[in-house]
Amino acid sequence: MEKNDKPSQNNILLLQILLGFAATVIVAYLGFRGVLVTVETPIHATQTAEAKLTSTAQIQFTVESTLAWQDTGVKISAGDNVQIEYLSGSWTTWADGHPSVGPTGNINISDPKNPNHPLPSAYPGVLIGKIEKSDEIQEIGMGILFIAKSSGNLYLQINDDNLSDNEGNIRVRISINP
Predict the structure, then answer these.
(1) Residue at 152 is within a domain
(2) 34, 97, 105, 110: which could form a disulfide with 126 (CB 3.0–4.6 Å)?
(3) How confident is the model at residue 6 (pLDDT cuts 50, 70, 90)?
């Protein structure tokens, strides 16, 4: 009888191994084909900060050369990573006398300082920006990446003191990663 019991136990063990292998293959196949349902774990209050870090909000905005401090509608919070990128367009600070330039401004001027410009140390025509209620004006040019020191809406403008004789606009992409 012992001889018959051992083959029977071996057969059962072999059958269990084969069934386990077959089940693994079936689950792997169904998972690969996307048949299995994925259950997502809800985000709890303690996890929202981590989840928020992975989401980036982006908009495109057209900055007019004839308008002062234009509200982009983008709300920035202190600590946000802010990226502004030039996409297209050109403008001039004087339609009858200066050439059209991009967001870097008129870099052919030997001394760009003009105490009447919003950012006196930057070239005329350069793209500049600031966060609402902040006195700090930032040169943006072709693009910038910074961590916001204050909160409020983002404002953009051409660096010029007489906007009425300007012409043109530029388009930018604004990305916020909290």
Answers:
(1) yes
(2) 105
(3) low
